[in-house]
Design goal:
alpha+beta; Nucleoside Triphosphate Pyrophosphohydrolase; six-stranded mixed β-sheet; 9 strands; 19% helix
């Protein structure tokens, strides 16, 4: 299995609800997650550039690199038993006012942090990513997750740098 590299972008509205996408495509078809996508490695795209591009492509919001805070890098081993993922998680410092229109990737909703825990979301998000967001979004965390179908999900924080949570 080879690594795929992706970003997830956590964006909120003015009331603090998160923009979530109910995905129409694999991986995570039918599940809710923040927006994001795959890094264009052939173009030499950086994770920050990918976050800016995906934000524009998926919701039409032009965001500069300085408006993102990279708070987590997580290596997911054997996700769905088919590939490894290196994911970069960004907190967007700019809020949005209106719900974006539905795209090929899926439909959007603003969802409170408490409600997210009741949604159908990827297991790694439920068991790790949202807890990492809650605790470390103002700092930085490096983590790894063993997602192999033959073993229970295991998420390990390898390094954490504290920061002020906003």
């Amino acid at each position: 299995m080879h690594y795929k590299i992706s970003v997830l972008i956590f964006i909120r509205n003015q009331k603090g609800a998160f923009l979530m996408l109910q995905r129409n495509k694999s991986p995570n078809k039918g599940l809710w997650s923040p927006i994001g996508g795959k890094l264009e490695m052939d173009a030499g795209e950086s994770p920050h550039e990918c976050a800016a591009r995906e934000t524009f492509e998926e919701i039409g919001l032009q965001v500069g690199s300085s408006e993102f805070h990279l708070f987590c890098m997580i290596a997911e081993k054997a996700y769905e038993g088919s590939s490894h993922w290196l994911m970069f998680l960004f907190d967007c410092k700019r809020s949005i006012a209106e719900l974006p229109t539905t795209i090929d990737e899926g439909g959007f909703a603003f969802i409170s942090r408490e409600e997210i825990d009741t949604l159908p979301i990827p297991e790694t998000d439920r068991e790790g990513l949202w807890a990492i967001y809650d605790k470390h979004r103002g700092g930085f965390v490096s983590a790894r997750a063993n997602c192999s179908p033959e073993a229970p999900l295991e998420i390990v924080i390898e390094q954490a740098i504290d920061g002020t949570t906003k």
